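Researcher: Structure for this, please.
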Amino acid sequence: MARDGTSQFSPSWLASLENGSTHGHEQRLRAFSRLWRAFMRARVFVAAVLLALQVFVVVTHTGGPDWLVLVCSLHFTAALAVLLWAHPLDKGKPFQFQWLSTVGVDVLVFAVLQHFQQGGINYTLLFALPVLLAAILGSLTLALATAAGVTLYMLGDAALSAPLLSEVSTSRFLQGGLTGTAFFLLALLASQLAQRLAREEAMAQSSQVAARTQAQVNELVIESLSEGVLVVDQHGVVRNANPAAQSMLMGDRYPRSAKLLLSARDGWEGLAQLVDKTFALGQELEAELRIDIDELTSHKLFARTRLTTAQGGRHSGLCVLFLEDLREVEARVRTEKLASMGRMSAAVAHEIRNPLSAITQANALLDEEVHEPAQKRLTRMIEENAQRLSRIVDDILNVARAQPSQDMGTLPSLPLDPSVRQITQEWTKQNQARQVLGVHLHAPGLLVAFDPEHLRRLLVNLLDNALRHASGEASSIRVITQPAGSERVRLSVWSNGAPLESSVLRHLFEPFFSSQSRSSGLGLYICRELCERYGAQIAYQRCRLDHREGNEFYMIIPTAAASARSPVQQSLNYPAGDAAPGHTRAPQDSKPPPMSTLF
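Model: Predicted structure, token format:
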């Protein structure tokens, strides 16, 4: 048992944090104060009864002297004054003025009344009040001292009331001794019971605080889970749902106060049937379900049910559903695939690079043998595409394994606007998208520390992605460059495609994730990796351009001067109006810069 009365038993793993708090100590003080005031009210009541009794005795002339009324009046006044103006003392401090004004006054007044009693009135039982008061609110020493004082008084009163060794004296002595012994036992038992109750109260308060803290921790854990948790009763009413489950089922339209009925919601029939079957069979079930949130958004979920049990192993009538987005499962599978790709990167490099080397050498030998312009053009095409394939293999292998920090001082300072113009012209010619693409260059003279081929890969990937989702109308794809502060430049690719699903946004830049079956899912991931390699950031937002809503992927690229001063990756400080990488922004009207070039 600790000194402050709390048990050393730890009801939870948070007990070490709770024992050091002052909350339990304050609760014990409040409980002690309530008990102290209950005793003070009892003293006032007893004093009032004694005063009324003495007034009656004086009026009827059946009792002791009249001045006992004055004694009872003073006793009542003192008891009332202590109740109204005094404050309880700390338990364990026996010899204080307050104890003299309560226990001492009571013993003295009861002794005077007992000594001057007449008419057969016996006040002996009243001594139990100060003994209990000292035993419960004070220390054991104070309780035993009070019982000893009462016992000495009764023995002294027995000695003075009759001649020694007479029958009356012997009877009074025996009566006083037995009564004193009873008061000693009363003080000892009351003190032990009070200490026991104090220990039990301290343990109960500590356990209560631990339970509340544990409940708060459990709520925080459940709320932060990526797995959805639903609590449903036998009638299909959703009692509780964590934020992940709310997002999976209804997104932002989930009501925060009303309870939902599974069978009454469109698209939730599978959940309702799974819950009903779980209650009917009384066992845990699993199923894959499809939840349609709206016309554009649907979730494929893996649901597991668990029935809560009460004491005795009986079911308590609640079913807990654990919902897991299958896209999250697919994301983990993609992560494992990426790890496997990293382990296989060396073998893949040998398997691909060796044939590429043979093709390159054979093409060089063939180029020496041919002389016709048409054949020369074919050998140059083979050489260019072999080199491009070699660079693609290098990029994939570089993404698969960890890369050291890029030395910005060794990179050439690339003029952004001319490079973007050349890349977009080549892409437009290759994809026959002259009327679809609009290019707006507003960063003249700005240089970036970026590898030219990597910038081409980055921009081509974003343009290919935009072309797949754009409507194909005139200027449905925009490429815009503009300064973003004094040391950064903003390069964005906008298209008027349909809004992306919230489930797609969560995995937008992850490897092997794609909403199309024929896509490898590496395009946006490689873009992000390339940006991070050069200290740039890439992000997505839904915005308006020329009063048309669309999807925008934008890069914040440090200038060559800023990259030379800070070769490590730039800190994530975004200019006003830009979102953090991987985050979305609400639709808004944005005025595009004036057109400088339109292909």
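Researcher: Any notable elements?
Model: Residues 1-21, 568-599 have pLDDT under 50 and may be disordered. The chain has 16 helices and 14 strands.
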